[in-house]
Amino acid sequence: MASTSTSLSLFLFLFLHFSSSFSKTSSLFSSSFLLRSQNPPIDSLRHYRTAFFTQILDHFNFNPQSYQSFQQRYLINDTYWGGAAENAPIFVYTGNEGNIEWFAQNTGFILESAPKFRALVVFIEHRFYGKSIPFGGDEDVANRNSSTLGFLSSTQALADYATLITDFKRNLTAIDSPVVVFGGSYGGMLAAWFRLKYPHVAIGAVASSAPILQFENITSPYSFNNIITQDFKSESQNCYRVIKGSWQQIDMVANQPGGPQLLRNSFKFCKPADSQSIQNWLYTAILYTAMTDYPTPSNFLNPLPAYPVKQMCKAIDDPTTGNDTFAKLYGAANVYYNYSGTATCFDLDDDSDPHDLGDWTWQACTELILPTGANTEDSIFPASTWHYADRVHYCKSLFDVEPRRFWITTHFGGFNIERVLKRFGSNIIFFNGLRDPWSGGGVLKNISSSIIAIVAKEGAHHVDLRFSDSNDPKWLKDVRKQELNIIQDWLSQYYLDLAQY
């Protein structure tokens, strides 16, 4: 029997699950950036060559172990580069939690923009992901315990990027070539922070869907799921009501004689599943459909039609299913899990990690504490609260570490961002689409004349960085044009300044 693996969506549930409570599970799960590549309209990887850089293991310590090194992978496309002699720009993608080839395939905006600026394009892989594994490339050794995983952090990653870029420019004799960094999601956070921490290396940053404010006492833990709720409400009140009422119904049926088999048959699972697993499965489809509610078909998480939230609600509102709630939910989940129509059953037990995302657990347990799992009474998910103690308990049990609860906001800032960044920041574009649940932790207002917030009411998760499509709506085309114009202004000012010295 053909089946479709749900590991792409349940992956983090499988190793981040620390409670039998649905709401607690989802609160940690949604603190991740489990992203999948879309199918680009061109074979983008064919245009990149792969290289490796000998990177230092520890940028901040001079003990003997810090002198160890590892091979950090990066991808290069110099097809359109104007060359070092002309100080042509270098566009760098600050890789996030996964295989860098996946990001290069997904992020078409940079490649498509390169001809206009005669830019060289570089995608740098984040340490501990893909093939950029310290300790001789042995994942078992690198992931052994906190003594080795301790070298995985956002600050070390940013130092990697600064070191690689500086050496790369030196080798190209391109010292005066300006660098612009780009990133989406966690990569967008890194791009923004890179500009703030290494302004002498990058003249500007495009930070798309970067929730740099999704931290305690800055953004409400209710924000994330409130946005998902609104996405579905905006399509259909009935759709919202059916999903909202489904959690209790799943629990009730699962505990009845014959209930597990009924649920298996209703949702076409390959094996019997308990209530918790089914709720996680359904939650995943709802979350990621909202996050990737793109205006054109995509294969970012799974193959999806244009406006997948609308299609989910259309399935739920289908009059032919009558009052059969499970038939409606199956039709909705099928939009996310089986839009291609090739699967005959769903496998909830597959825990494969095709994009090398596993080490995100460590980051979520050490510094990237992103409260997202609380639900109001109005939420499409069961009402709940977010508790830091739950995260501590889980991380202690898994790694025997306690998160550095406020380290990110201490190191990078976040409080009073409009007042603070106005004083020392510049040349950052923050894009957010308001249908993206991560937008609640994004920068949604201009901070200064050069720290610009571009907000798209109909936008989803870093939709601006996707490859362009002939069916892209005007608002999306306008967003990209605005970003290109701002980058052009940065470069023009840089070359004016350079000419004076």
UniProtKB/TrEMBL annotation:
<comment type="similarity">
    <text>Belongs to the peptidase S28 family.</text>
</comment>
<dbReference type="GO" id="GO:0004180">
    <property type="term" value="F:carboxypeptidase activity"/>
</dbReference>
<dbReference type="InterPro" id="IPR029058">
    <property type="entry name" value="AB_hydrolase_fold"/>
</dbReference>
<dbReference type="GO" id="GO:0008239">
    <property type="term" value="F:dipeptidyl-peptidase activity"/>
</dbReference>
<dbReference type="InterPro" id="IPR008758">
    <property type="entry name" value="Peptidase_S28"/>
</dbReference>
<keyword id="KW-0732">Signal</keyword>
<dbReference type="GO" id="GO:0006508">
    <property type="term" value="P:proteolysis"/>
</dbReference>
<keyword id="KW-0121">Carboxypeptidase</keyword>
<keyword id="KW-0325">Glycoprotein</keyword>
<dbReference type="InterPro" id="IPR042269">
    <property type="entry name" value="Ser_carbopepase_S28_SKS"/>
</dbReference>
<keyword id="KW-0645">Protease</keyword>
<dbReference type="Pfam" id="PF05577">
    <property type="entry name" value="Peptidase_S28"/>
</dbReference>
<keyword id="KW-0378">Hydrolase</keyword>
<feature type="signal peptide">
    <location>
        <begin position="1"/>
        <end position="21"/>
    </location>
</feature>
<dbReference type="GO" id="GO:0070008">
    <property type="term" value="F:serine-type exopeptidase activity"/>
</dbReference>
<protein>
    <submittedName>
        <fullName>Lysosomal Pro-X carboxypeptidase</fullName>
    </submittedName>
</protein>
